[in-house]
Design goal:
By secondary structure, the chain is an alpha/beta fold. It has helices at residues 3-23, 51-65, 68-71, 100-119, 127-132, 150-159, and strands at 41-46, 78-83, 122-126, 145-147, 163-167. Strand 3, helix 5 (127-132) and strand 4 form a beta-alpha-beta unit.
């Protein structure tokens, strides 16, 4: 191969690599809303009781937590998911009310919630909702923290600067 051809091919290769590196990156600069932030503090008010839709939203929360733009901030993201209303049934090991297909989906969600907890996402379940929907607090998944009242917890997080994202 001629030296000039080799130089052109090498230059093209590096140019293509640079284009892919910078065009696919998702940094905080791409989001006007993230300018000046040190960390993303977010609370998800989670009330979805349909297992399939709940799994879709839980996956989206985890993807958002791992997003390059969120993680390009100087501090690690601080996410909290509070299960309120009928969604508390989805985080209970008592699955008697669900179809076999729903149980399979909820099993996937269980694994995802365990991974999210290990990643540092705080998971909470409202005990007021648990009482209203007949969920035994002793059967709530072990990685989920019990809070007396999800609205009180949500109020505290919001007063401490957390953004509220409803998941209904």
């Amino acid at each position: 191969m001629k030296p000039i051809t080799k130089t052109i091919i090498t230059s093209l290769f590096f140019s293509v690599c640079l284009v892919f590196m910078f065009s696919g990156s998702s940094s905080a600069e791409n989001y006007k809303s993230l300018e000046g932030l040190k960390s993303a503090k977010t609370i998800f008010d989670f009330r979805i009781d349909n297992p399939t839709m709940a799994l879709v939203h839980i996956k989206l929360i985890q993807e958002t937590y791992k997003d390059k733009a969120i993680n390009s901030l100087s501090a690690k993201p601080d996410f909290v998911v509070i299960f309120m209303g009928p969604s508390v049934r989805l985080v209970s090991s008592d699955r008697g009310m669900f179809s076999e297909a729903d149980k399979k989906v909820i099993g996937e969600m269980d694994k995802l919630l365990a991974a999210m907890s290990k990643d540092g996402i705080r998971l909470e379940a409202c005990m007021v909702a648990a009482g209203m929907f007949g969920v035994d607090p002793g059967k709530i998944l072990p990685e989920i923290h019990h809070v007396g009242n999800g609205w009180v917890s949500s109020t505290g997080y919001q007063d401490n600067g957390y953004a509220l994202i409803p998941a209904f």
